[in-house]
């Protein structure tokens, strides 16, 4: 029997701002709000930094480049326009580019330095 991956958790400073960010850009909605832990549709969990720090007893390192959230979008140009309109101060890793295999991608950080990639379907 295989285990099932249920969620991916990311650490955020302001859970309400992060909830709005992921709703605005990706259409994710809240499934459960449990006082500093919030489950969004698609299995993304937001956890307030103070709770995570208390559990781990370690510093949180934003922009650590050890993982990314990956989303696919057919109309990536429209997505980029929405991103620039709604979050003009977002920090980019790379703006819209096309890989040698033809996939278009953009990489940027969310409000807390979690890496996000949006690419066209392969």
Automatic annotation (TrEMBL):
SUPFAM superfamilies: Glyoxalase/Bleomycin resistance protein/Dihydroxybiphenyl dioxygenase. It comes from the Bacteria. Residues 4-121 form the VOC domain. Signal peptide: none annotated. Pfam families: Glyoxalase_2. This is VOC domain-containing protein.
